């Protein structure tokens, strides 16, 4: 029996090594004792372990005791084996100590490892140097463009809505009969410029005239509107026409404001949508666009907060001017000075990128750039360009997205601005409200920008493209419901300490803020990503047609619907139920185009 047990011990040593043997011996002896791990974690085999567990290392190496089933018997261990046993005992002690030390070290290293992982995650979030070199200037450019657009948008509304014998009813007419023809004319000019000039020179040729006009308007045109605007002539004509012509006549009466309105609208379509995003698509890859388009716009939407507060500050400043000073004239100069200054910064950044980023092979693929430069431009007229674009389902779906947005936002926005004028008839109060509105839009857009990157990464292009129509559809229908059933919501308004009119104004403001923030954070990046897989011809002329014509066509289409409804039922308020139904139909076609474009975009990306 002793020989058999001893043989098992020797076998264990050969199989598991000295550490396992020592672990077995140093544990208290009992027939049910558990044996330590072999070789760092493996257990003895079922046949060996129960028998080895019965061994107990005696206090004297010369006579170790063997316990089996409670019986103890002496065993003489040969001297040849004693020395190795002592050696194994020493190894066991050392191994146990080192294990404890390693456990302590591992425990101490865990917070250090977590810290390293956290720092590594932060490091991975920071773009590499070659991407930062182009992304930061692009973000600053977009900041300047949207800073200007916010000031121009708020100013054009105040000028036109509060002008003599004018109101929100003028907006549908000016967008249909002035803005749309101007957009079509610009598209024809832009196509000619693209055929004759380099792309960078096209940028300068389009932006500088805007800045010159806004400067002239503040210092030359606006101070002389008293004799530039033909009030007497329009009053004479109005006496011979029905009252329904009051809105179109107001455009003629305040023609310089109408031109300013169109130039401000065109700044958004031409400089922001066409020129900036076209340049951004040229500089960035699709992978970079997916990562950074939702994010670098965050810096731009800080512009909405700053510009909104700047407009509000100017509104307060003109309220405190001494008698004899034209408050509007002074504020227009301050506002346009900011526009011209930001425009100069924007063109300076563009020049810097042309000289330092576009020529850097780490930032832009120079081989592709040379191939584009060598490619002969195909010159097409307006009709040929329209035929070329209409043959492409891809461009048609893109145009449907842009037109649908323009029509939907216009249908809701004009009704809201009519309510807004009722609540704030004074230009100072109206302008101050619009300043706060722009700041709130910027703040909400910043949050949406943070969510935008997650939406793109987790759900993809299609889901991101459907967020904006969903937002506009839901919030727009809520606003119309509040307007149509205002008497029903009167107790709710009273409980909130306000009037049904002010409640409609606030809900309409919330609708506009959510709609615009989802546009800036998701709709615009989706639209711009969709251009990247296209060839150069489709990019330039397709983008010009979609952005410059599509956007005004959408707004003009919405305005035309409102005009038809006004003439049919008598007023904008009476047309509200019909406008709500039309909004639902437009959202349906928007959804359909977005899904179709999503399939084509994914297919184009697979072919790249």
- For the largest sheet, list the strands in their spatial order: 1-2-3
Tell me the number of helical segments per DSSP (H or I, 4 or more residues long). Answer: 21
What does the radius of gyration come to? 38 Å
Give the averaged pLDDT, no decimals.
Answer: 76
Binned, the helix content reads over 70%
Total beta strands: 3
Structural class: mainly alpha
Q: Strands, helices and their partners?
A:
Blueprint: H1 2-16, H2 18-26, H3 49-52, E1 55-56, E2 65-68, E3 71-74, H4 79-125, H5 129-161, H6 170-196, H7 199-221, H8 225-228, H9 231-238, H10 246-253, H11 255-283, H12 286-319, H13 327-356, H14 366-374, H15 382-390, H16 393-423, H17 427-484, H18 490-495, H19 500-531, H20 536-569, H21 576-607
Antiparallel strand pairs: 1-2, 2-3
What features would you describe in this structure?
This protein has 608 residues and is an all-alpha fold. It contains 21 helices and three strands. A three-stranded antiparallel sheet has the order 1-2-3. Strand 1 and strand 2 (65-68) form a beta hairpin. Helix 6 packs antiparallel against helix 20 (536-569) and helix 16 (393-423) packs across helix 17. The N and C termini lie far apart (78 Å).
């Amino acid at each position: 029996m002793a020989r058999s047990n001893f043989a098992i011990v020797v076998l264990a040593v050969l199989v598991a090594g000295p550490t396992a043997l020592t672990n077995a011996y140093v544990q208290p002896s009992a027939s049910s004792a558990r044996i330590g791990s072999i070789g760092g974690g493996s257990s003895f085999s079922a046949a060996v372990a129960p028998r080895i567990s019965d061994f107990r290392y005696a206090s004297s190496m010369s006579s170790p005791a063997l316990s089996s089933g409670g019986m103890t018997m002496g065993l003489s261990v040969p001297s040849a084996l004693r020395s190795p046993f002592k050696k194994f005992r020493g190894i066991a002690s050392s191994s146990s100590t080192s294990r404890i030390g390693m456990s302590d070290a591992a425990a101490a290293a865990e917070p250090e490892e977590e810290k390293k992982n956290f720092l590594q995650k932060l490091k991975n979030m920071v773009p590499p140097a070659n991407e930062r070199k182009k992304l930061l200037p692009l973000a600053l450019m977009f900041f300047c463009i949207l800073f200007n657009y916010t000031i121009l948008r708020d100013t054009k509304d105040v000028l036109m809505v509060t002008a003599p014998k004018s109101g929100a009813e003028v907006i549908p007419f000016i967008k249909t009969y002035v803005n749309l023809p101007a957009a079509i004319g610009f598209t024809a000019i832009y196509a000619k410029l693209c055929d004759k000039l380099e792309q960078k020179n096209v940028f300068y040729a389009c932006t500088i005239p805007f800045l010159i006009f806004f400067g002239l308007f503040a210092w030359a045109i606006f101070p002389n509107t008293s004799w530039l605007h033909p009030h007497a002539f329009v009053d004479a004509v109005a006496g011979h026409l029905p009252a329904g012509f009051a809105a179109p006549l107001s455009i003629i009466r305040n023609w310089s404001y109408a031109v300013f309105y169109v130039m401000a609208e065109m700044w958004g379509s031409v400089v922001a949508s066409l020129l900036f995003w076209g340049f951004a698509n040229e500089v960035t890859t699709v992978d970079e666009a997916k990562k950074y388009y939702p994010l670098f716009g965050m810096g731009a939407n800080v512009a909405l907060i700053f510009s909104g507060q700047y407009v509000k500050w100017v509104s307060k400043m003109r309220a405190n001017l001494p008698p004899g000073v034209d408050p509007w004239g002074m504020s227009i100069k301050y506002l346009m000075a900011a526009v011209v200054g930001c425009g100069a910064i924007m063109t300076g950044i563009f020049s810097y990128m042309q000289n330092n980023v576009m020529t850097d092979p780490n930032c832009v693929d120079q081989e592709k750039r040379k191939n584009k430069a060598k490619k002969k431009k195909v010159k097409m007229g307006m009709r040929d360009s329209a035929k070329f674009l209409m043959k492409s389902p891809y461009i048609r779906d893109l145009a449907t997205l842009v037109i649908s947005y323009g029509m939907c936002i216009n249908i809701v926005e004009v009704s809201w601005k009519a309510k807004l004028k009722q609540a704030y008839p004074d230009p100072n109060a109206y302008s101050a409200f619009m300043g706060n509105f722009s700041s709130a839009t910027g703040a909400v857009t910043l949050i949406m920008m943070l969510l935008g990157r997650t939406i793109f990464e987790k759900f993809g292009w299609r889901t991101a493209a459907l967020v904006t129509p969903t937002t506009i559809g839901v919030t727009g229908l809520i606003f119309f419901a509040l307007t149509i059933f205002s008497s029903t919501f009167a107790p709710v308004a009273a409980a909130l300490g306000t009037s049904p009119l002010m409640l409609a104004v606030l809900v309409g403001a919330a609708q506009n803020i959510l709609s615009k923030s989802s546009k800036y954070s998701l709709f615009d990046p989706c639209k711009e990503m969709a251009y990247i897989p296209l060839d150069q011809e489709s990019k330039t002329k397709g983008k010009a047609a979609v952005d410059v014509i599509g956007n005004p066509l959408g707004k003009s289409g919405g305005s035309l619907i409102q005009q038809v409804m006004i003439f049919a039922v008598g007023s904008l308020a009476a047309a509200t139920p019909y406008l709500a139904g039309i909004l639902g139909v437009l959202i349906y076609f928007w959804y359909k185009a977005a899904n179709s474009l999503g399939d084509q975009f994914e297919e184009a990306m697979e072919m790249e």
